[in-house]
Amino acid sequence: MKLTAVLSAVFLAASTVMASAACTGDHQQAASCADGTTWDPEAKACVDTSA
Predict the structure, then answer these.
(1) Half-sphere exposure of 25 toward its Cβ, with a 13 Å CA cutoff?
(2) Which residue from 24, 51, 25 is spatially nearest to 38, judged by alpha carbons?
(3) Over the stretch 41-51, which tens digit does the pLDDT of each residue have?
(4) CA torsion sign, 26 to 32 to 38 to 43?
(5) CB 33 within 8 Å of CB 46
(6) pTM score, two decimals?
């Protein structure tokens, strides 16, 4: 019984680490800005282009 509990805990801990490791990195998503604005990657926001 103790062995099963220990193995289950190890498996759950390992699967959590593996899942979070798969989500690292730079994720990119398409951005839509309103008319008259454009995406500024440095500001990470839509900025006014009418000026």
Answers:
(1) 7
(2) 51
(3) 898 889 998 86
(4) negative
(5) yes
(6) 0.38
H, E, C per residue of the chain: CHHHHHHHHHHHHHHHHHHHHHCCCCCCCCCCCCCCEEEECCCCEEEECCC
Q: Are 18 and 24 in contact (CB under 8 A)?
A: no
Contacts of 40 (CB under 8 A, 6+ apart): 46, 47
Most confident by average pLDDT, 12-16, 18-22, 23-27, 32-36: 32-36
Q: What is the mean pLDDT of the chain?
A: 77
Question: Which residues, other chains included, contact 6 with Cβ-Cβ below 8 Å and sequence gap of 6+?
Answer: none
